[in-house]
Amino acid sequence: MDKRPVDSDFFMRKLHSVMGLGLVLFLMEHLLTNSESALMFGKDGSGFIKMVNFIHSIPYLKVVEVLLIGIPLLIHMVYGVKYLLTGAPSIAKGKGDKPHLPYERNYRYTLQRITSWLLLVAILLHVIQMRFLEVPTEVFLGTQDSSKYLVALQMDDGLYSVSKRLKVQLYDQNRIVNEHKRMIADESKIRAEEEKFQGEIKDENKYQVKKDYIIREQERLRLIKRWVLALESIDVEESEVVASADNIGTAFLLKVRETFMDPLARVLYSIFVLAAAFHASNGLWTLMMSWGITLSPKSQSWAARISVGLMLLLSFLGMVSIWGTYLVNLRV
Questions:
Q1: Least confident of 52-56, 88-92, 104-108, 165-169
Q2: With helix as H, strand as E and coil as C, how does 137-188 read?
Q3: For residues 330 and 57, what is the distance between their CA atoms, to the nearest angstrom?
Q4: Where residue 146 falls among pLDDT bands split at 50, 70, 90?
């Protein structure tokens, strides 16, 4: 029986490519969902809202994200960096000490390396922004249907009409202060009711009715306090507001809108998406060759056409989201 040891580098390269395939599928879903925030894919981003709400209704979502996205991404990035540091481009003219091979595949290889470094930085920043810094704050107000999702937004003229169409409430500093004052007034009112209740009711039936009323009012006050504390926990400046949405999809849509209000963000995200589109499609093309799916020149030519088509599709979906969400769909 042949007991030759398994080539660990060969195994890790195959694992690296398989993890990359899973990330290509995720990228397609991610860009498709984001594209629905633009006008041509649904009025006021309704498709985006429904898709995000569906994703967040998946049981054990955090576990699913770690297993199906986080771990594959980590493996692909770690071994991708290793290959970046050990490989070398072969299209630049040197001093004769390195091969000069200015062919299409070598240009693809070099561009794959360049986009790898771009994506390494961009993905880390994107994850920090959207999964840690700007995640909507959920406020549980008794039942799942009554939960609210809060996000801090920069105020602009178009936000008034957009929030009205999306059924979103806006709270500036003054309104938050008024909510706090109303909470204090309700608290004083209930305390007065409790003190009055202590000595005036002797009838047992009336006692129970009044007691139930006090308990309900105390529960209502508890939820009001939770709501006001959540509003006050979000630090907003004079030019900012807290938006309260009925679902997490709408809250994320507002954050996407705000992100793409910034011209610099639109440019940087465009570079990010184009790099991801090329990296994913070219990686799929090399995967099909390395796994023996496309061996003949004809099949490799067809695979190249498919990868170009995929790159164009991913680029289109990304550009629709970046340039259509605010400028076309949700500006006013």
A1: 88-92
A2: EEECCCCHHHCEEEEEEECCHHHHHHHHHCCCEEECHHHHHHHHHHHHHHHH
A3: 25
A4: confident
Q: CA–CA separation, 60 vs 113, rounded Å? A: 35
* Bridge partner list, 219: none
Cα within 13 Å of Cα(311), Cβ side: 18
Nearest residue to 245 via CA among 316, 116, 159: 159
Note the Cα 165 to chain centre separation in Å: 22
**Amino acid at the residue 138:** E
Q: Which residue has the tokens 């957009």?
A: 162
| Residues 158 and 330: beta-carbon distance below 8 Å | yes
- Report the pLDDT averaged over residues 128-147: 85
Residue type at position 104: E
Q: Per-residue pLDDT for 295 more than 80?
A: yes
What pLDDT score does 283 carry? 92
Extract the tokens encoding 58: 């998946």
| Cross-strand bridge partners of residue 244 | 150, 169
Give the integer Cα–Cα distance in Å for 83 and 15. 13
**Is the model more confident about 141 or about 179?**
179
Alpha carbon dihedral 271, 30, 48, 249, in 10-degree steps, equals: -100
Contact 224, 139 (CB under 8 A): no
pTM of the prediction? 0.88
CA–CA separation, 192 vs 250, rounded Å?
A: 40
Instruction: With CA atoms as reference, report the closest residue to 37 among 331, 324, 327.
Output: 324
222-241 tens-digit pLDDT: 999 999 999 999 988 889 99
Nearest to 171 by CA among 114, 92, 234: 234
Strand ranges across the sheet with 169-171: 137-139, 148-154, 240-245, 169-171
| Whether pLDDT at 72 is above 70 | yes
pLDDT at 137 (0 to 100): 94
